[in-house]
Each structure stands twice: as C-alpha cells, then as structure tokens.
C-alpha cells in the first residue's frame, strides 16, 4: 500500500490529533480516553453548522461500531450533532433497513451498507455521496478518496455506475488462516517428516495440504488439541463465506463474469456457473474437509468457530482477520496468521468489508449531518481510534493509517494494536489475485440462501456435491430469471 | 313506539368494535390483495398486479411443501410431549404434600423467559465445545453435536420449546386437578378403584375441558414458533428445522417477496383457523362453549 498524500493544514491537524490519541492508548502514559478521536476538533469550519441535529446510525454489531459508540463524545462536541447508534446482527439489520427504506421515512439516517445485502438491493435508497464530496462549504474528506484502498472503495461503495458512490469504506474483515503457531512450531519437524512438506501455514500450501495437516493433528496431537480444523458451516451466510474460499480456489465461481461482479456489480448476472466441473470439485473437497472438521462446525457461524478456536479446540481454522484481537486475549502470543491455502487456481480470501452510507429519505439537514458523521467515522484519526480501542478492534480502510510508523511497529509482538498482527496476511489476501469478492447483484440475499442451504444439505449427507452445485445453479437461474 | 338505531349497549361498544375491525380487517384485506400482487418496496410501497402467479408458485414450490411437513412433525411432537409431560408433572405435583408451592414456583420459571433467551441458553448447553448437555452426552458415548444432525437438531429445538412451555400445561392441569371434587375421588376409592382407574374414569373426565384449553393455547402458539429456531439453527441443517414461520420470515424480510409471503401467511392463517375450529367443536360438544 502506498500512503503518499499531500499534507494540508487540515490533515496536519488531523495527524496531530491522532498522535494525541496515541498518547491515550491503553498502556501508554497520561491522558484520558475522552480525548481519543478528538482529532477533528481543531478543524473548525463547517463542522458545527448542523448543531442540534440528531441522527440515527444503524450498524451490524461489529468492533468498529462498538469503538465508535464508546467514543462519540469528540464528534458530538465538535459538531453539536447527537448520534444514536443501534447495533445488531447483520440479518436483523438487513430487515430493519429494508423496512425503513420501504416506509419512505428515515428512521435511520446513517446506514451500515453491506455491499451485498444492503447496497446492491437498496442502492436506490442511498444518497450518492459525490454531491457532498464536491461541496466547498463542507469539511473536505481528509486525504481524499485515494486514501481508501481502491478495491474496497469500489466493492463497498459502488453499484452499477462508477460515477456514483453510495458508501465510504468503514470496515474490512477478510478471511484468512488462523493457526496455533505454538503447536505448529512444536510439531514442525515431525509433521514435515510425516507429511513430506513444510507445514508452516503460507499461501504456498494447498487446500489438500491443509486437509493433510488437519488429519495429522487429529491422529498425532489429540491430547493437546481436540481437532485439527473447524469451520463456520451452520446453515447461514457464514457457510457461504467459508465455502466460497474453496470454490474460488478451485477455479469455480458463481457467474461467468467472475470477480468483476464483485466490484461494481450488475442487475443481470446471467446464468450461474456453479454447475461447472471446478465448482463441483470444490464442493467435493469441502465435503471431504468438513467430514474431518470439529463436529460443532455445522452449528457454528464466524463467532462460533472463533470461540472454539479461542477455547483451544482447534489447531487451525479459516476466519475473519478481525478476530485477531480476541485471539490475542484468549491465546496471547500463540496464534499465527497466513493467507488461505491455494487450490488448483489460486488462493482466495473472501473480503467482507462494508461501507457507511446515507438514507436518501432523510431531510437535507439530516443528510448533511449524516455526511459529517461518516466523514468523521471514516477519517484516518477515527479509523486509528477504532483500531486502538479496547471496545473495538476494527481494522482501518485508509492507506495512511497503515503507513503510520506506530501501526507498522505494532505488526510485531508485543503489540498495542492486536488486529494489526494479522496485517501481513491480510495485505497478501487483498492483492487482486488473492481477494475473494462475491458477486454484487440485487438478488444476492436469495442466492446466498440457496447456496448455503444446498451446501448444508450436502454436508448433512442428503445430496451429493455435484447435486448441491447443480441444484444451486438451477435455483440461481430461476431467481435471476435466465 | 320503538326507538330506531343501535341499542345503548351497541353504541357504547361501537368505538371498540371499530378499532378492532380496523386492526384486523384492514391488515387482512391488505394481505389478500398482496397475495395477488408483486409488492415493490423502494420509493414507497406499490402493488403491481400478479394475478394468480404467487398462488401458482406455491403449488410448485417443493421447499415450502417440505417446510409444511417439518412444521406438522414439529407441531405434533411438541404438543404431544408438552401435554403428556405437563399432565404427568401436574399429577405428581398434586400428590406432593410439603413444598408443593416451592416446586410449582420453580417449575414455572422457564415460561417467564423470553424464547430468544431460551434459544441462547439451549445453544450454549448443547454446544459441543462447552455445553453441559454435550458434555453429559459425550460421557454416554455421543461424540457429535446435537444441532448438527438433521433429526437431532429438530428434536433439540422441540426439546427447548417443551422445556419452556410444559410448565404452562402443568399449571393449567394442576388448576384443573385442584377443582376435582374430593368426594368423587373418595367414593371411587371406597368402591375399590385403583389409582389409574380413578384417573381414567373420575379425574380425566373432570379435567378434560381444562386440558382442551391448554391444548388450544399451546397449539396456537406452536403454529408460530420462530425465535428459538432462528437463534439456534437458522432453519438448518439441510432445512431440517425450517418450519413454515421461518420460511415465511425469510421470504418476506430476507427476500422481500411480500406477495409470495402473503400467500404463505394466508395458508398459515387458514391452518390456525382450522385448528381453532376443531378444538372449539370438541369443546362445544362438551358444552364448554355454550
């Protein structure tokens, strides 16, 4: 990532504020936490013009929102705008946003716009943010749009039209390989001897080797670790995410257009390619892998598999990198991170980032106040605050935050910013050849449900892998009317 | 000369009747209209005529049929187990002398919990990593996860509902048992009737109406069972626990196909009415509804 940006008075002040915030990190001397995130206070002009306005922010219960909810005071003092934050499970969020948009009202002004479940189906309900980006009388977006990681800006913020921007990148969870570094280190030589390859997790290893490593742990280290691998294979969105990593690695995909559909998206994705040989091979491998996995896997979503890993039940698992902070709390210094294994085609690491947008039904005043909030919430200083917050543990979407020396230094233990311990693996996972982007289509909620239901049926032994994929493809085509 | 117009009583009730009508009739009519429409949500709600498309789709939808089968299995098992165990518990409680009130108070605690809490509690107790029940089952040789298997998942969510609502059946039955005239039971004893004979010929006929009320209450609730499944299995694995309310929720709020969801909802409503009528007919035969 390149972090080179021109230094303006505003960004200088932001930077000073952020450095001030660093002084208040846990474990650092002096100061109080109230000052964290106060970077924008000194900016002045334009921030206080909507004093007295109240805006409601609906978000998934993610670490960045927890951090922002705990550190809203600087924003409220700076702007005089009161922010109410509702945090909930993603499915509930989608339901509430859907009802809010349908009502024609704006119960929620700032929307946590998941690209697939909110942005694609409801893009008409979101404000095109370019109208605020160009306004001179509003505080400028610090460092401009180029400070966001471009893939994430497209995937999380655009739909159908590259000229429009519906959301600013807010969080960026990405699935990577979590493993018990202490156990791998302890058994490395014997594993290498038995398996015939260096088992150290890396992007060079294949899914078949991942399987062999998991089986090795099951056979040789049962007294230390009950299971070699665990997965998020509950009949839930999580199962689609877990399976997609393997699907793409094996060269399969949801539609002919492949990863391109993950950037700007489409309303007409065409016929599904899930019945292709690559997708079937992926399903066959996934079925084999899950037979070996912890039996609880079929009841776990991402939280479940993270809890099991942190409880010392699993030697390794694929999961969102933002669990690094809680891994460090549960197993300090014992966890390592790597990009996911490769299949015959590539390594694929599903990206689950989300943007924040504005409800188009809100009044002009509310929209403007909401813009000030999302400007602040995605600013480098606030992004750094969420990274450092004990309440949160999100990871930044800004290049400039990753370029900070203190963030760079935190990539090694002992780290004050535990999520950054996964940064090296995540940076590799974000490379265009390794990132996994779901198709951004308006019917995704149905397609997602079809896929995870059919894969769940496969895992339950009800249907064979090829049936699961063909059946998914047929149902996709019915939903998409092709 | 007789005064024209509604009676005094009717005039007094009229506002309440109008409120009730608006709360039930308007949504009902809307539901019917929606079932023949494609409902567009963005930019304000719009109904576009779909004629019989939604109803035709229902006939061909194997997934919805499968959910109905699961629902009926769930319905029969839940009601059967809750009624049987509730009655047994009430009979035991009725025989207890000292500490009966304490036992009763403890027994009814589950039904004061929100179903979502029951689901969460059940999920933790059966979790194969840290669950108490999972630990007990492992000692008995069961290595799997209760919510991971198709049959075990359905039985487990049924078990959670049974745990929560059996106390209600027990409470209602216990109230009925307390109202059985003691001289009748004593007379049966004098005539040499055993415990089970007394139950069959004296007690059950006396409490039959109360049992039917308990059955009716639980049946109406079981038709719309939702929370525990959502929090535990999300309808899985392999749709094994996707009963019709979960399918309805998914269609309406996840897929936003409100027209088709209305059709599913109308069928649920019809099923509820049929069940209620069946129970009321039985009650009517026994004179309770007269």
Can you describe what's shown?
The complex is a heterodimer of chains A (482) and B (290). Chain A is α/β, with parallel strands linked by helices and 482 residues long. Chain A is built from 20 helices and eleven strands. In chain A, the strands form three sheets. Chain A has a five-stranded mixed β-sheet with strand order 2-1-3-10-4, sandwiched between helices. A four-stranded mixed β-sheet of chain A has the order 6-7-5-8. Chain A is globular. In chain B, helix 3 (62-95) packs antiparallel against helix 9, helix 7 crosses helix 9 (195-223) and helix 9 (195-223) packs antiparallel against helix 12 (258-285). By secondary structure, chain B is mainly α. The radius of gyration of chain B is 24 Å and the shape is globular. Chain B has helices spanning 8-35, 53-60, 62-95, 100-107, 115-126, 132-139, 150-178, 182-190, 195-223, 227-232, 244-254, 258-285; strands at residues 37-40, 46-49. Chain B starts with 7 loop residues before the first helix and ends in a 5-residue tail after the last helix. A two-stranded antiparallel ribbon of chain B has the order 1-2. Chain B contains twelve helices and two strands; from the N terminus they run H-E-E-H-H-H-H-H-H-H-H-H-H-H. The chains are: A alpha/beta (482), B mainly alpha (290). At the A-B interface, helix 4, helix 12 and helix 19 of A face helix 11 of B.
């Amino acid at each position: 990532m390149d972090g080179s940006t021109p230094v303006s008075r505003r960004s200088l002040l932001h930077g000073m504020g952020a450095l001030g915030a660093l002084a208040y990190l846990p474990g650092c001397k002096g100061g109080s936490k109230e000052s964290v995130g106060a970077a924008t206070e000194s900016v002045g002009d334009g921030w206080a013009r909507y004093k007295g306005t109240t805006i409601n922010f609906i978000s998934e219960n993610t670490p960045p929102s927890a951090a922002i909810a705990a550190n809203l005071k600087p924003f409220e003092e700076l702007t005089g705008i009161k922010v109410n934050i509702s945090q909930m499970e993603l499915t509930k969020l989608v339901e509430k946003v859907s009802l809010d948009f349908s009502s024609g009202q704006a119960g929620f002004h700032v929307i946590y716009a998941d690209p697939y479940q909110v942005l694609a189906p409801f893009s008409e309900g979101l404000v095109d943010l370019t109208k605020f980006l160009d306004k001179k009388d509003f505080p400028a977006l610090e460092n401009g749009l180029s400070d966001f990681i471009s893939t994430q800006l497209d995937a999380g913020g655009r739909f159908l039209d590259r000229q429009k921007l519906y959301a600013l990148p807010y969080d960026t969870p990405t699935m990577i390989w979590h493993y018990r570094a202490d156990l791998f280190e302890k058994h490395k030589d014997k594993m290498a001897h038995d398996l015939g390859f260096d088992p150290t997790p890396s992007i060079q290893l294949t899914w078949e080797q991942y399987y062999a490593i998991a089986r090795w742990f099951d056979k040789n280290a049962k007294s230390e670790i009950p299971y070699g691998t665990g997965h998020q294979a509950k009949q839930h969105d999580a199962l689609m995410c877990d399976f997609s990593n393997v699907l793409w690695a094996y060269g399969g995909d949801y539609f002919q257009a492949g990863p391109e559909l993950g950037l700007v998206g489409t309303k007409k994705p065409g016929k599904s390619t899930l019945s292709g040989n690559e997708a079937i091979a992926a399903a066959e491998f996934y079925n084999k892998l899950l037979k070996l996995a912890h039996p609880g896997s079929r009841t776990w979503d991402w939280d479940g598999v993270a809890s099991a890993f942190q409880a010392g039940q699993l030697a390794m698992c694929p999961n969102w990198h933002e669990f690094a902070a809680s891994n460090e709390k549960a197993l300090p210094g014992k966890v390592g991170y790597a990009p996911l294994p490769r299949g015959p085609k590539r390594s694929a690491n599903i990206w689950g980032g989300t943007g924040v947008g504005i409800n188009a039904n809100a009044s002009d005043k509310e929209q403007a106040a909401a813009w000030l909030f999302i400007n602040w919430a995605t600013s480098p200083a606030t992004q750094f605050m969420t990274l450092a917050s004990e309440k949160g543990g999100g990871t930044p979407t800004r290049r400039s935050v990753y370029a900070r020396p203190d963030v760079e230094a935190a990539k090694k233990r002992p780290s004050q910013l535990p999520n950054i311990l996964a940064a090296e693996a995540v940076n590799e996972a974000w490379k265009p050849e390794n990132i996994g982007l779901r198709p951004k289509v308006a019917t995704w909620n149905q397609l997602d449900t079809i896929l995870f239901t059919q894969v769940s049926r496969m895992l339950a032994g009800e249907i064979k892998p090829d049936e699961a994929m063909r059946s998914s493809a047929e149902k996709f085509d019915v939903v998409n009317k092709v | 000369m007789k005064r024209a117009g509604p009676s005094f009583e009717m005039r007094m009730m009229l506002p309440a009747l109008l409120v009730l009508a608006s709360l039930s009739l308007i949504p009902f009519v809307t539901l019917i209209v929606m079932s023949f429409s494609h409902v567009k949500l963005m930019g304000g709600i719009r109904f576009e005529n779909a004629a019989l498309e939604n109803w035709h789709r229902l006939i061909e939808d194997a997934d919805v049929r499968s959910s109905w089968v699961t629902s009926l299995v769930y319905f029969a098992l839940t009601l059967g187990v809750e009624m049987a165990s509730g009655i047994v518990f009430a009979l035991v409680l009725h025989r207890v002398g000292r500490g009966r009130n304490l036992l009763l108070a403890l027994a009814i605690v589950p039904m004061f919990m929100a179903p979502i809490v029951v689901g969460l509690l059940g999920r933790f107790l059966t979790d194969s990593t840290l669950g108490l029940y999972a630990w007990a089952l492992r000692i008995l040789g069961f290595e799997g996860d209760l919510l991971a298997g198709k049959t075990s998942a359905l039985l487990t969510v049924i078990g959670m509902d049974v745990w929560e609502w059996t106390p209600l059946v027990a409470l209602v039955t216990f109230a009925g048992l307390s109202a059985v005239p003691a001289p009748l039971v004593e007379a049966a004893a004098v005539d040499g009737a055993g415990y089970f004979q007394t139950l069959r010929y004296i007690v059950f006929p006396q409490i039959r109406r109360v049992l039917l009320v308990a059955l009716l209450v639980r049946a109406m609730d079981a038709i719309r069972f939702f929370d525990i499944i959502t929090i535990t299995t999300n309808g899985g694995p392999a749709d094994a626990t996707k009963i019709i309310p979960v399918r309805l929720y998914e269609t309406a709020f996840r897929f936003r196909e409100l027209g088709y969801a209305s059709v599913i909802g109308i069928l649920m409503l019809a099923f509820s009415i049929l069940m209620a009528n069946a129970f009321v007919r039985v009650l009517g035969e026994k004179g309770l509804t007269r």
